[in-house]
Design goal:
With about 325 residues, the chain is α/β, with parallel strands linked by helices. The chain has a single domain, classed as Arginase, Chain A (3-Layer(aba) Sandwich). It contains ten helices and nine strands. It has a nine-stranded parallel sheet, sandwiched between helices.
Length: about 325
């Protein structure tokens, strides 16, 4: 694959991190056009959140924090900018007063990315965000899903609405975008509204892994289980930042104690190198709820791990 100099990131060993306009991981700011291979995008939407808001500021916060990211993965050795043309295409358009209009606008934005054959990697936004992205990139066939989350997001309705941050997995299955047999949810642990909160997932055949089971199995066995579930087929990754323990991600709308460590999640992603990753997102980052900035720093590092995965998959 030919990599154009147009897509090279700013070199932080030559230009200070605090200089220039912030982009995701200091990537070049580009338009949605060929020969772009991996499109980094923000989705500033939090109208689907039902408790604390502020995830609309997630893309800006992660862009700023991602000034810290360098260019080579220290474990896998993957240098994504040497493998692919990677650029920040800006933010998907959203409507400040309507989740429904926003979802339509976001879908159209990602259709443009999909039309040029680029892999979308995104920072939300609340957990409505994966639905319009999947509508844009998974219409041809249902895809697998790796979901890091403390909540299953499989409700039919929540607060009387069909599209919100608690329903995207169910909508994706119903619309033929997700293959339930190739979905694995990891880190589930939030208290439930009732006894039947997770019935839909069990009936649909989703591999639902609670945090208790995660600890019983251990990280290596969890990685093996992920690989078993997703197989070789096309797979999307979604990380709700509340899947991490609040010690590592305090800046989120619905924190749940006792989650996955940042270290574990880094290594899980690194061990998935070679998987058929067709896109991914990191959602529910609320910069204003974490004055330390570590939630945004960790989200930026997870975005880099996803970029490494997508670059290897793209280069196959």
């Amino acid at each position: 694959m030919s990599v154009s100099s147009k897509f090279q990131p700013i070199d932080s060993s030559k230009i200070p991190r605090y200089a220039e306009v912030a982009t995701f991981m200091r990537a070049a700011k580009v338009e949605i056009e060929k020969p772009l291979d991996i499109a980094l995008a923000g989705v500033p939407l939090d109208l689907g959140a039902t408790y604390r808001v502020g995830a609309r500021h997630g893309p800006a916060g992660v862009r700023e924090a991602s000034r810290l990211i360098r260019q080579v993965n220290p474990t896998t050795g993957v240098a994504p900018y040497r493998l692919c043309n990677i650029g920040d295409v800006g933010d998907a358009p959203t409507h400040p007063l309507s989740v429904e209009l926003s979802v339509d606008m976001i879908e159209e934005f990602y259709k443009r990315i999909h039309a040029i054959g680029a892999v979308p990697l995104s920072v939300g936004g609340d957990h409505v965000v994966p639905l319009p992205i999947l509508r844009a990139i998974a219409k041809e066939r249902p895809v697998g899903l790796i979901q890091i989350d403390s909540h299953a997001d499989t409700f039919d309705t929540f607060m009387g609405t069909k599209i919100n941050h608690a329903t995207f997995v169910r909508r994706g299955i119903e619309e033929g975008l997700l293959d339930p047999k190739r979905i694995i949810q990891i880190g589930l642990r939030g208290t439930r509204y009732g006894d039947d909160d997770i019935n839909y997932g069990n009936e649909a055949g989703i591999r639902m892994m609670s945090m208790d089971e995660y600890e019983d199995l251990g990280r290596a066995a969890v990685i093996d289980e992920i690989k078993r579930v997703i197989g070789d087929g096309p797979t999307y990754i979604t990380i709700d930042i509340d899947g991490l323990d609040p010690r590592d991600a305090a800046g989120t709308a619905v924190p749940e104690p006792g989650g996955i460590s940042m270290r574990d999640l880094q290594m899980i992603l690194r061990k998935l190198t070679g998987a058929n990753i067709i896109g991914g997102d990191i959602c529910e980052v609320v910069p204003g709820l974490d004055p330390s900035g570590m939630t945004c720093v960790n989200a930026a590092n997870l975005l880099f791990e996803m970029t490494c995965l997508a670059a290897v998959a793209r280069g196959k």
